[in-house]
Design brief:
The protein has about 280 residues and is of the alpha/beta class. The chain has one domain: Spore Coat Polysaccharide Biosynthesis Protein SpsA, Chain A (Alpha-Beta Complex), CATH 3.90.550. The chain is built from 10 helices and 13 strands. It starts with a strand and ends in a 6-residue tail after the last helix.
């Protein structure tokens, strides 16, 4: 069914300057694991083991992280520190990693289009690593969405209710409820002012996309700042076919900013690190 997961990771991470001046935001540690590792673990748990990453200048640390460090492993071999590498070793054993570079930062739509050579003509997931999603009571968010894709076979976007004053930070959807937590999308607006927002249901960094999205992105005109927005392409897809918004089960932390990052760190320390599940 779905085996590939795309991580757009070429952005500058300006909301977290100066920490991200020389370090990829996706490598910011939440307790003792970088953000992107949480995302790859979520993808693997959903059955997605072909990991594609769109990188940019200054992002070499991403490739180095998902690789073997022979000197380090030899140094800690036979010590109790080996346990800290159990999680990353699992990912290296069970996933394949491929990379391409986005040479210009021209929006999320453009980043996804840049990943087309890695994805090919098949459905795929997209994860924005600075949205850390967890569900302590069952399946992860991507696994929930993969299950829905098996039933509906169309593009699915994860949404959550946000304070109406914050709609200008997100793509916002409106539509018709077709089931528990499921909305068939009929309208979608990128970062609307609160008074112009069609609802308070905001798209967060989890998508399952059908491959026709690439052609729709190619046909999408750049908007503000010359950026190509994925929401514009998704709206075309919704009008011509079907896009489902899903109010997922679990919690999402916006780790692109300090407040959400601290909340995520406290949560993961309490529920994973202290219980020995953080490795």
């Amino acid at each position: 069914m779905i085996k590939k997961c795309l991580f757009p990771a070429a952005g500058y991470g300006t909301r977290f300057l100066p920490a991200t001046k020389a370090m990829p935001k996706e490598m910011l540690p939440v307790v003792n694991k970088p953000l992107i590792q949480y995302g790859v673990e979520e993808a693997l748990d959903a059955g997605l083991n072909e990991i594609s990453i769109v990188t940019g200048r200054g992002k070499r640390a991403l490739e180095d992280h998902f690789d073997i460090s022979y000197e380090l492993e030899n140094q800690i071999k036979g010590t109790d520190k080996e346990k800290y590498l159990v999680g990353i070793r699992r990912l290296l054993d069970e996933c394949s990693f491929s990379y391409t570079r986005q040479t210009q930062m021209k929006g999320l739509g453009h980043a996804i289009l840049t990943g087309r050579p890695l994805i090919g003509d098949e459905p795929f997931a997209v994860v924005l690593a600075d949205d850390l999603c967890v569900n302590l009571d069952g399946k992860g968010v991507l696994e929930q969405m993969v299950d829905l894709y098996k039933k509906y076979r169309c593009t699915i976007v994860a949404v959550q209710e946000v304070d109406p004053s914050e709609t200008n930070k997100y793509g916002v959807i409106a539509g018709d409820e077709i089931g528990d937590g499921l909305i068939r999308v009929r309208d979608m607006v990128e970062k609307p002012a609160p008074e112009d927002a069609p609802s308070n249901l905001a798209i967060i960094g989890r998508y399952i996309l059908t491959p026709d999205i690439f052609k729709l992105i190619e046909e999408t005109e750049p908007g503000k700042g010359g950026e190509i927005q994925i929401t514009d392409a998704l709206l075309k897809q919704a009008k011509d076919g079907c896009v489902i918004a899903y109010k997922f089960k679990g919690q999402r932390f916006d780790c692109g900013g300090a407040e959400g990052y601290i909340e995520a760190t406290n949560f993961c320390f309490e529920h994973f690190y202290k219980t020995g599940k953080a490795y």
